[in-house]
Every structure is written in C-alpha cells, then in structure tokens.
Design a protein that fits this description.
Structural class: alpha/beta
Largest sheet: 6 strands, mixed
CATH topology of the largest domain: Rossmann fold
Radius of gyration: 30 Å
Number of helices: 16
Helix content: 25-40%
CATH architecture of the largest domain: 3-Layer(aba) Sandwich
Strand content: 15-25%
Shape: elongated
Number of domains: 3
CATH class of the largest domain: Alpha Beta
Length: 511
C-alpha cells in the first residue's frame, strides 16, 4: 500500500473485516479517501461494524477530524493511518472508539514508529472484543435514569432547529418529550439550535449535524427526532450520513395515532394520513427518468419501481377516501336519528392529555381507556348523560388537539371533527396545571376556527384544579370567565353540570 500510494501520489485505503479479509479497496486523492456505502456490513443494533480502515497519509500527518468523523459515524473497529516520509513507511497512527460514558467518544494513539507496530497490535483483537462487550453492557443515561443497551425501546435524541425565541423552543421541546413518551421512545438528550440562517439541506450546518450524529451514536441513540417538519430532501440528506432513523414531529404524531386507533373509522383515517404524508417523500431516480411511455418506440420494460410504488399509494388513497365517504354517510344517518329524538349533544374538546376521557368516564360511569399520555385515546366515544328533571344529553369525547396538528392528519380527521358541527355545546377542557395552558387554549381555538366552529356555544372548563393552589385556580377562572373542576373528583362536578344546564335550557331554568 505504501509503495503504490507513494508511486501515484494518492492516499490508498482498505477496509478489512475481523477475519482479515479485504472487503473494499479505495483510491483517493492526495488529501483523503471517500468511503463507499457499506451495504455488505449493515450496522443495525450492533455497536461496531466489524471493519477496520487502514489507509495511507502521504506526509505522515496525524489522524485528522475527517478520519475521526468516519470512525465515529461508521462505527469502525479501528482506524489506522500509515504515515509515509520520503515515500517510505514511517509512523503508525491508530484511533478506536471508547465505551459510554467517557468524555470523548474515541482514543488516539499517534506517532508510533512502524517497527513497533506489532507490539501495538499484538492484543488488538482481544481489545476490540473487550471494547464491544463494554459497549453492549453499557448503561446509558436517559431522562428516566440508567438504561441498558438491551432495552428494546427506541432511544432518541430530540432536536429543535429554529429562529424562534429560546423560551418558545424550550416549550416546544417539552411537548416533543411528551410525544416521545407517548410513543414509548426513551429520550437520551435534547439539542436546541438557533442558527442565523436555516440550512436548507440539514437545517443546521454540515459540521454541526455530524457532531450531533457522533454524540448520538456515542450515547447509544437509535433515532433522531426533529421538532420541525422535514422535507423529503432533508430526510434523505441526513439519512445519507447516518444509519440512525430520522423522523420529524409529524411522523412521530402519525406513529402515535397508528398505535392508538382501534375503530375502523380511526384506522382508515390514520392510514390515509400516513399515505398522504409519505407520497411526496417517496424518493428514487425521479419522475424525469420514468419509462411510462406508450406507442411505437415507447414500449419498454415498464414503470420504474418508484412509479409503481407511487401508483399503488395513490390507488390505496382513493380506496380509503371512498371508505371514509361511506362512513361519513353512516354518521349523517345517525345524526338525523338524534335530531328526530331532540336530544342535545355536548362535545368535549381540548388539548391532548387535558383529561377529557377521564371526565367522560366519571360523568357517565363508563370505562373508556385513559392514560396519562398524549393521544392516549383516539376513537370518538359517545355516552348518554342524565340530568335532573328527566333531561338527557349525548356527550361525546373527540380526539385531542395539538399545536400545529399535521396537515395530512387534520385533513384525514376532518370527517370525524365535522361531528362537532352537530354539537349544541362545546366543553373546552383545559389542563390548568400545565404551565403552557394559555398556548393550549389558543391552539384549540385556532383549530375550531379552521373548522368553522368559532361561533358555537362554548363552555371553558379548567380541569385538574386539585394540582394547583385553590386561590390561584379561582383567579384564573375569573380571568377567563370559566369554571374549574377535577375530573377525578365527582364532588366538583356540580358547577359543571349547572353550567351545562344553564347553557342548554336557559329559559326553563329561569322559570
């Protein structure tokens, strides 16, 4: 290698596996080499790839940052730079990764004379084996404490890159943590970036994204979750430099919805939203290279796989849209029956995890699923609620709202949310114990406005009053002209029931 490299004036590298077999031979230029995609040696959940990179340095340069980036991102067993001086072998430079936790993700051993190389590499295999064992048995630090690498849950680094004020970034990151928790993702670390300009390719600079990826791999992450919606080209660009999963906020919400949808209606709407999200993100050689031509001279092997995939997605979307329309007609029939009976409808709306399902359960003595997570319940539930004076209402619990609800999800669930048009009263439930409750109120009001429901009679109800000081709760209620309750304490419901009666039957009550 040294002789060939000196003769042609270019760096030469080889990638060898643990059996000493050469898998790749790379010829670079005078300053570096370009490592190809290592398809034959996928990483997966392995901590090391099982490959060693050995390459020449024409001027006996020490291991540089590009070398260390390759070592860290590709999870190589080791990187060995063979230094040349006057065309002859001179020094050996070696770097290998370190197990977490350690201050640095790698260790460097430089300027070792070539004639001492055997002593350096004498126990190399056992050292790599020992290092891999340490990595596999490492306990990683998450927000919930220590975490074993054997834990099969996804481990994520959460990333927010925007030009918004720091306080807004922090609020948004807290919400992203809650979403990750709902998706059963372990959060290892969070990264907030406020660049002067957003990089159109990586959101942040290439150096910063590589530094972030090295940190993520060192901490044992399996996934990167961006708080901003990523374009197809951004996902591809970031995925090209790492084998970690790369998703954005919308994709995370769609995954949560897919887990929580149990009714046929909910499953269809979630699948429709997922397909609409994925369709523009299907990437390949591009439509310009499509062989979808007909006629003389245009016949050929047929469509590209990418075009086939897109066509199948469009066909599935059309099928799901027809099924949704059939379900919508069925809802209209049920609506007509309710109108005939003259039973008022009260719909519970609010930010996700505000306690809507808990309130429905305790008001109507029912048992819909509840959990202290965002979007714990997804399917609409309707129950009958009996009032004094032989009065009944139908009370419904709708899907929770969230800030910047993904467009595809909003479109798919619009049919379900249109049921709110039939409501005689909207109960807007707010978690008074959440420090961001005012932003939650604005987010819900914006969605109701988008649905054309701003003029519907509304009753603002602050839930979880038992989690804050009583005087503070009274002050907030006065400021917002609202009432407060605790959904887990039925003795607080009298204020709510009285307010509902006053809204639905004002004339009878005045008499």
């Amino acid at each position: 290698m040294a002789q060939c490299s000196s003769l042609i004036g270019r760096q030469i590298g080889v990638l060898a596996n643990r059996d000493g077999e050469i898998g790749y031979v790379i010829v670079g230029d005078a300053n570096g080499i370009f490592i190809p995609e290592l398809l034959d040696y996928p990483l997966g959940r392995k901590v090391l790839r099982g490959l060693r990179l050995i390459h020449t340095h024409l001027k006996d340069e020490p291991i540089n940052q590009d070398d260390l980036t390759d070592l860290s991102l590709l999870r190589l067993d080791a990187l060995i730079a063979v230094g040349l001086k006057d065309g002859h072998l001179h020094n050996i430079h070696l770097a290998h990764l370190l197990s977490y936790p350690s201050e640095r993700p790698y260790e460097i051993k430089s300027h070792i004379p070539f004639h001492r190389m055997e002593a350096l590499l004498d126990n190399f295999d056992s050292m790599v084996s020992q290092l891999e064992t340490q990595m596999q048995n490492a306990l990683f630090v998450s927000e919930g404490g220590l975490l074993s690498l054997h834990d099969r849950r996804e481990r994520a680094i959460l990333i927010n890159v925007s030009k918004t004020p720091r306080s807004e970034q922090e609020d948004s990151m807290e919400e992203l943590k809650e979403l990750a928790n709902s998706a059963d993702v372990v959060v290892l670390d969070t990264v907030l970036q406020r660049p002067k300009e957003i990089n159109p390719k990586y959101l942040m600079g290439e150096g910063k994204i590589k530094e972030l990826l090295i940190n993520a791999l060192h901490k044992g992450a399996t996934m990167l979750i961006f708080d901003q919606d990523l374009t197809a080209s951004q996902i591809k660009a970031i995925s090209d430099i790492t084998e970690l999963k790369v998703i954005d906020r919308s994709q995370l919400i769609l995954d949560i919805f897919a887990r929580r949808a149990h009714s046929r209606d909910g499953k269809i709407q979630v699948e429709l939203a997922q397909l609409r999200y994925r369709l523009p993100r299907l990437t390949g050689k591009g439509t310009a290279m499509s062989r979808l031509m007909g006629g003389i001279g245009g016949r050929g092997p047929g469509e590209m796989k990418l075009e086939v995939d897109r066509r199948r997605v469009r066909e599935r979307i059309n099928l799901l849209e027809r099924q949704l329309e059939a379900l919508r007609r069925a809802r209209r029939q049920r609506k007509a029956q309710r109108i005939e009976r003259g039973i008022p409808i009260v719909s519970i709306v609010g930010y996700t995890n505000a306690g809507k399902s808990t309130l429905l359960n305790n008001l109507t003595k029912s048992k819909t699923f509840v959990e202290d997570k965002m979007f714990a319940t997804l399917d609409t539930a309707s129950r009958r609620l009996r009032f004094p004076r032989e009065r009944d209402v139908i009370i419904t619990d709708t899907v929770g709202f969230i800030r910047d609800l993904p467009k595809d999800l909003f479109t798919a669930f619009r049919a379900t949310l249109e049921e709110l048009e039939d409501a005689d009263l909207l109960l807007h439930i707010v978690d008074i114990s959440n420090p961001r409750f005012e932003q939650h109120i604005k987010s819900v009001e914006k969605i109701l406005s988008d649905l054309g429901l701003s003029q519907k009679p509304q009753l603002l109800v602050f839930n979880k009053e038992d989690l804050i000081d009583r005087e503070e709760a009274e002050g907030i209620c006065k400021r917002f002209s609202a009432i407060s309750i605790s959904a887990i304490r039925p003795e607080t419901f009298y204020r709510l029931l009285s307010a509902i009666e006053a809204e639905l039957w004002p004339i009878q009550l005045s008499q």
